[in-house]
């Protein structure tokens, strides 16, 4: 069952984590830096995962190999 | 400011402060502020020649002291056995503030002068003694060699004597005595002896032969040990020569020729006994000299060791004093108030610290007059100061290298902390390589304290400076490696693969069937080793690059908003930001949406063929509205694409015309109200002429030096229009070219993956099957080779390449969307930074 639901589900989780990151970082001289770093990290890691996942949802080609090479690790 | 803490989002707010410092406390106040490192002083005497400033005398004195310290340092460096220099944190401290300061500095001056004279004296005497030693050694050689000549000559002489004897025998009665007498007389041939450079000996011989027409007998031998010149350390080889000739004229000629050729002549006695006496004397003197030389050397070394104990401290004190007096030269002496007036930029947040520092300085100096601090209002642009710590420093530096941010504009360095390592990792993605650079960074971080104290090599120092950048690069690379499913060119098979490979058909090719599973985290390992693996990976990575690129550019574009809001430029929001955003999104945002949409559809359930997105985009622009029903992505595509294209087209004149139009209206309004400035025809503002009056008033806080305002732009309408045209063209063309530029994310990751695979398959794979002891040894050697190639080529070379490209993406593609970068950086008087500068 390849569907887009996991993507949206994980998006919700990531948005929740970003909100937590924004709210729960303690005040201090590094607050902006830590907040920005956490939120940007979550966003960019999610983006890359999402793109990788969606690219494989409904692939348009199937892999094939000539049997000279064996299974990889 | 409302916020309590400094942030990296914008540069700090700065205030221009005026310091009124009584002259007695001036030195200590500047010392205290230098330790704090928070004030950038302005030059209040720009028109004064540096040789006419007030503190020139003190600076000259400190320069003299600095020269002496440098002399000591060079002397210590030249010693072959290392003289230990006590490091600064271990040295005894020297008090340079307070009532005893002047006395300490004077004492230091005297000490330095005394050390210098002693050292110079010892150096000179060492040199002279070495010279004398050399001469005596030469003399000894000459004595020894000539002894050999004389012995030879003596034996020859007796042979000649016998033949002589035959013809004159009857005339002489006392044969023996005569013989002896004659032999000594005959043997008393005049000669010249000395030493000469080996290279010149043949020329010397030839010249003498020609000058004396062969009336000489010359003999020479090599001196085996070379002579070392103490000053330069150069070796010279010499020969001893002895020339026999008779006649004063000839001897005089020989002496002149010898001198002109640079030979040294030594007086040698013909008598053997006298010669052995001289030899003994020379040897004795040589021994004495050697003892004296040795003692001088020992004394010199102990002097240097004593200097080494304090050298670091002296260097520090002298450097600080020079900086203090140079800063004091920037101050203005106010005759009426009898104080020094200084102006400087200070971060507003640090004002209390400055107040405390000033009070502390007064306490130290023992006086009771406190310097007064006043804020000045000015319209000059303050310097840009971003407060960084050891973690954020590296990231801020690489973004500052493109240009220092304008005062208080949004700082791209904050976001670069994550986006830069992330974009690097997209190009570098490999778990193994990521782990290697992660461990390298961790090692440097654990050795931080030790390495920070050492003088690091230039290249190692660069890597050490960027250790936190490398740390983050490594961490993200491990993540992207997991995404690309690549560890040293192999893939991990952690979860269920989504493909099952069937039995190979008759042509030896085995196809895979989808089993409904989606590999949850990363690229399915079935693609690794598949013949069409690259087809899938290329399509995936290219689309990912475009998606990431458009999102990064959109993010950078949005950073314009806080700038416009803060600097109260609402016109820019409507005239620049909105049309730019619409233009970018209507073409490239649409492309991203299409990419994601195309991926989310199960094309086996649709009756249309999946269209090529690239052709679709080109057709959207070249033939809008015409979408082939068999190649459409969704229903109504033609209409929507026309709308989007029209939106984009509308944005261009919007960007071109709106801002110039409103600015023109503003100018009309100002002119229409009749406010024509006095100097309007010249185009510049009036110069203030009431400086004298301002100074008379006490404490009115006016800037003492009023400079021409350079920021007042010429509101020449044609310039505004041209500026806007350039801006529009740059943005629109840039959108397309920058989006394509992000494809380097794909290109570099492809190159990295291929390189990694080639390295594996050409080295270890070929040696895996070998058996026996020879096979094992070969395998071990190949593994070593593979690992070093991995580190040097794949990690270091590819790493530097990906670093460069990620940096370019930030500098060009992202910064061009929002960054002005016209500021100048905050350069405070800071003693800590003084030694970084050297």
How would you characterize this protein structure?
Chain A is mainly α and 73 residues long. Chain A has helices at residues 5-24, 31-55, and one strand at residues 64-66. In chain A, helix 1 packs antiparallel against helix 2 (31-55). Chain A is elongated, with a radius of gyration of 19 Å. Chain B is built from 25 helices and 13 strands. In chain B, strands 1, 2, 9, 10 and 11 form a five-stranded antiparallel β-sheet that branches. The radius of gyration of chain B is 43 Å and the shape is extended. The model of chain B is unreliable at 162-169, 181-187 and 678-714 (pLDDT under 50). Chains A and B meet through helix 2 and strand 1 of A and helix 10, helix 14, strand 13, helix 15 and helix 17 of B.
Concise summary:
The complex is a heterodimer of chains A (73) and B (838). Helices cover 62% and strands 4% of the residues of chain A. Chain A contains two helices and one strand, in the order H-H-E.
Topology:
The complex is a heterodimer of chains A (73) and B (838).
Chain A: H1 5-24, H2 31-55, E1 64-66
Helix pairs in contact in A: 1-2
Chain B: E1 14-22, H1 23-36, E2 40-41, H2 56-78, H3 101-168, H4 175-187, E3 191-197, H5 201-212, E4 217-222, E5 227-228, E6 235-236, E7 238-244, H6 248-260, E8 264-266, H7 272-329, E9 332-334, E10 339-347, H8 351-365, E11 372-376, H9 392-400, H10 412-428, H11 431-446, H12 448-453, H13 458-465, H14 467-484, E12 499-501, E13 509-514, H15 533-558, H16 560-566, H17 570-600, H18 613-622, H19 637-672, H20 691-696, H21 717-741, H22 744-762, H23 764-767, H24 772-814, H25 831-837
Antiparallel strand pairs in B: 1-10, 1-11, 2-10, 3-7, 3-8, 4-7, 5-6, 9-10, 12-13
Helix pairs in contact in B: 1-7, 1-8, 2-3, 2-7, 3-4, 3-7, 5-6, 9-10, 10-14, 10-22, 10-24, 11-14, 11-24, 15-17, 15-22, 16-17, 17-19, 17-21, 19-21, 22-24
